[in-house]
Amino acid sequence: MIRPKWTVAIVLMSFALTWGCSSQDTKEIRLGVNAELTGSKPTVGDSCQKAAELLAAQVNQAGGLKVGDQKLPLKLIVEDNEDKAESAAAAAQKLISQNNVLAIIGPNASGNAIPAARICEDAGVIMISPWSTNPKTTEGKKFVFRACFIDDFQGQVMAKFARENLQAPTAAVLYDVASEYNKGIAEFFKKFFEAAGGKVVAFESYTKDDKDFSSQLTIIKAANPGVLFLPNYYNEVPLQVKQARQLGITCPIIGSDSWGSAELLPLGGSALEGCYFSTHYAPDIATPTAQKFIKDYEAKYGKKPDDVAALTYDAGSLLCAAITQAGAPDRKKVRDALASVKEFQGVTGQMKFQGTGDPIKSAVILQIKDGKFNYFAAVQP
């Protein structure tokens, strides 16, 4: 078993916990964070860690989390999963068997969340992924949840947007065939685009770490699509968009929530101007709940939070609410409380659970305009 290279333990309060103890014997609530701190998506892990730290600090500054008739401090234990499936599974196992956490936040990328989810489900430990949208993460599981929408909804949203808003009769797709996330959403987009009367004229794939997409894009250009869908990560999309434009592909280019990092803009520059993508919230039309989070995050870290940060804060807040409702740091009781959440107003909007780990919530579409992410539309489930 491959172990993560390093562990960051964030000790917000130092006491000991055995999760199975009665509440009067418990001195703290331990939550694990399984994040992509290194590897190909370090921005994702950094945002996840920062948001979790912010929430824990706020809870502890308020005297701790209400559990039964007492308030208990939160302690975060953060593991770097290196953005690798095997490391994500190992990190989950370590958090459970060595750190004895009550619940785990993360992983974020679906390729990491799916194997980690199996470990948590087998151990009966709650896992809530902020950002994993692939249905396989929660499918058939009782202890695994997410704070985001799922790919079939997101694929439907972007297919409908392409057909109705962009009036595209045809579409092309370029996706990473080795990624659970990319492959899954590409297939959902194709399904819903064709169900809406459109035709997918090119469905091209590549493999992680590829840098030259000219052969796939040449095929796409020859197919002359009305829109190009790139359900790929923020560190790959800029190069793909630049190469597409250089080859003379002029149709609108759209993407998914994996575009949502601020790193996308400096990497892509002017080539991204006019592109659209689906995501989880829009800071420029933030609710009061979101406005407070944005203000607090900026004050602590000196920058605006991205969607991963917002979703992590929601994931942690959901866990805290469930622990309080359960009245004890008992994994089964907290799991039941989380599954029964009827309505939760988070940073990324209102959500509720109806018997599964997948929340019912809305999506937003952002447009890249004048070098910024701008709100374009909201889509209800």
Key terms for this structure?
381 residues, alpha/beta, Rossmann fold, 2 domains, six-stranded mixed β-sheet, 38% helix
Architecture overview:
The protein is of the alpha/beta class and 381 residues long. β11, α7 and β12 form a beta-alpha-beta unit. The chain folds into two domains: 7-149 and 286-360, Response regulator (Rossmann fold); 151-279, Response regulator (Rossmann fold, 3-Layer(aba) Sandwich), CATH 3.40.50. It has helices spanning 42-61, 85-97, 110-123, 151-165, 180-195, 214-223, 237-246, 264-268, 288-301, 307-326, 331-339, and strands spanning 7-10, 29-35, 65-67, 70-72, 74-80, 103-105, 126-129, 144-146, 170-176, 199-206, 228-230, 253-255, 276-279, 344-346, 349-351, 363-369, 372-379.
Describe the secondary-structure layout.
Blueprint: E1 7-10, E2 29-35, H1 42-61, E3 65-67, E4 70-72, E5 74-80, H2 85-97, E6 103-105, H3 110-123, E7 126-129, E8 144-146, H4 151-165, E9 170-176, H5 180-195, E10 199-206, H6 214-223, E11 228-230, H7 237-246, E12 253-255, H8 264-268, E13 276-279, H9 288-301, H10 307-326, H11 331-339, E14 344-346, E15 349-351, E16 363-369, E17 372-379
Parallel strand pairs: 2-5, 2-6, 6-7, 7-8, 9-10, 9-11, 11-12, 12-13
Antiparallel strand pairs: 1-5, 3-4, 13-16, 14-15, 16-17
